[in-house]
Amino acid sequence: MAKPIEIGLVLEGEDAKMFQHYLEHPTFTREGLNLMREAKRDAELAGLD
Predict the structure, then answer these.
(1) pLDDT tens-digit profile of 9-45?
(2) DSSP symbol at 45
(3) Any long-range contacts for 41-46 (C-beta under 8 Å, 24+ apart)?
(4) Element (H or E) spanning 19, and its range?
(5) Domain range for 38
(6) Domains in the chain: how many in total?
(7) Continuous segment of H or E residues that includes residue 47
(8) Is residue 33 part of a domain?
(9) Residue 34: inside a domain, yes or no?
(10) Model pLDDT, residue 48
């Protein structure tokens, strides 16, 4: 039988540093914030809050 594929991501060097910096200091675009507000509103209207 075939072995299941393990999905993962390994970042090294500058990519790892940039990703860690983003995790510690996330940034959001205005479009992204509006999308989150819309999703929150839709969830509340659907009774999922």
Answers:
(1) 899 999 999 999 999 998 889 999 999 999 999 999 9
(2) H
(3) none
(4) helix 13-24
(5) 19-45
(6) 1
(7) none
(8) yes
(9) yes
(10) 82
* Residue 39 is assigned to a structural domain of this protein: yes
> Structure pTM?
0.47
* DSSP-derived 3-state class of residue 31: helix
- Termini Cα distance of the chain: 43
Nearest 10 degrees: CA dihedral of 15, 18, 23, 28?
A: -110
Q: Is residue 26 situated within a structural domain?
A: yes
Nearest by Cα to 14 from 3, 22, 6: 22
Tokens 């209207």, residue? Answer: 45
Q: How far apart are CA 9 and CA 23, in angstroms?
A: 15
